[in-house]
Amino acid sequence: MSEKTCKDITLGAAARFLKRNDDYIILTHASPDGDTLGSAYALYYGLKEIGKSAEILCPDLIPAKYSYFAVKTDHIKSEKATVIAVDVADEKLLGALKDSFAGKVKLCIDHHISNTRYAEKLLLDSKASAACEIMYELLVKLKVNINDVTAKALYTGIATDTGCFKFSNVTAKTHLITAELFDYNIDAADINRLMFDTKSKKLLQLERMVLDTAEYHFDDKCILLTVTEEMQEKTGCSGPDLEGIAIISRSVEGVLAGVTIKQTGKEEFKISLRTFEPLDASEICRSLGGGGHKGAAGVTISGTLDMVKEKILSAVKTNMEKTNVWASADK
Ligand SMILES: [Mn+2]
To answer: Which residues pair with residue 292 across a beta bridge?
Structure first.
């Protein structure tokens, strides 16, 4: 689907679209997080309420911690399915599902400003803290019954994409929608403990190793953390375990750019970038072929670790110069 033919649609148009068809495949992004899963499942439960069939396809294994809402869904034959993608900013992020579904997404529901407009129709609200905020409004528009599990899925997406309501993407609307979700039995404290305050012994061990890799650049305004394949093997941590590692990089005093480099192949590295104003993580990652939000973005780069470090540091430097936060070069 070329950029030109992607049509922006309203909540009302999206609701009508959902009523029109019967069988849906809902796609999430690879390395699934609480928001892509929460919005996919909320949509799934909503579609079931209005008598539709739907299957959720996730490119990677869904971590067990989401099992309080992530159940087994219907099986839909892809020939007759209407394909929807949620929280997926770019077809590349469909990972293992990309080859089967590229060019076939009819509706994308997203909140990434970097959305590459690959779908036929796009319901985008870049001011929404999470795709789950948009999904809540869509379910209200559809006038479907929201049950406790749907509310838990939505709450999970909003809580995880806002770092438990701490990030700059939180708005009054975020809180108003969340307040509505408290009408249901969501056990918010339990969800937050599971999402934010619980880690495995092996992850704690990995975090200790990662902290030892810390490098500071540009007058300590940038921290760089590295997670090598060797560390992952030694500790037994894998993809989903690493989801929360990037958060460490934004907790250091004075740091405006937190870079976490995770090795995903012999010469392939996935970068998670966290920034504070005036830096723009989305712009930095986009310059390297990735994307995301202003405060949190990512990109996958091939090459040796040294090459990858140089590329991301140079992109961070460019953004620092552009935004005038850093005047003197130390590199
Ligand atoms: Mn999201």
So the answer is: 297
Expressed as residue numbers, the domain containing 212 is 201-322
Identify whether residues 155 and 296 lie together within a single domain.
no
CB within 8 Å of 327: residues ≥ 6 apart = none
> How far does the centroid of ligand 1 lie from the alpha carbon of residue 161, in Å?
6
Rounded to the nearest whole angstrom, what is the distance from the C-alpha of residue 35 to the centroid of ligand 1?
5
What is the distance in A from the centroid of ligand 1 to the CA of 329?
34
Residue 219 CA to ligand 1 center (angstroms) comes to 31
In a domain, 327, yes or no: no
- Do 185 and 279 reside in the same domain of the chain? no
Total of domains in the chain: 2
Ligand 1 center from residue 124 Cα (angstroms): 12
**CA 164 distance to own-chain centroid:** 14
136 and 37 inside one domain: yes
Ligand 1: distance of its center to the CA of 327 in Å? 33
Most distant CA pair in the chain, distance: 62
Whether residues 189 and 205 fall in one domain: no
CA of 158 to the centre of ligand 1 (A): 8
Phi/psi at 226 (5° precision): -125, 135
Give 293 Cα–ligand 1 centroid separation in angstroms: 9
Query: What does each of the 331 residues of the chain score in pLDDT, given as a tens digit?
Result: 455 689 999 999 999 999 999 999 999 999 999 999 999 999 999 999 999 999 999 999 999 999 999 999 999 998 889 999 999 999 999 999 999 999 999 999 999 999 999 999 999 999 999 999 999 999 999 999 999 999 999 999 999 999 999 999 999 999 999 999 999 999 999 999 999 999 899 999 999 999 999 999 999 999 999 999 999 999 999 887 888 899 899 999 999 999 999 999 999 999 999 999 999 999 999 999 999 999 999 999 999 999 999 999 999 999 999 999 865 444 4
Pairing of strands 268-275, 296-302: antiparallel
> Could you tell me the distance, in angstroms and rounded to a whole number, from the CA of residue 34 to the centre of ligand 1?
8
Q: Quick one: which H or E segment has residue 223?
A: strand 222-227
Q: How far is the CA of 105 from the centre of ligand 1 (A)?
A: 18
What is the 7 CA–ligand 1 centroid distance (Å)? 21
End position of a domain, from candidates 138, 162, 196: 196
Name the token pair of 124.
């985008």
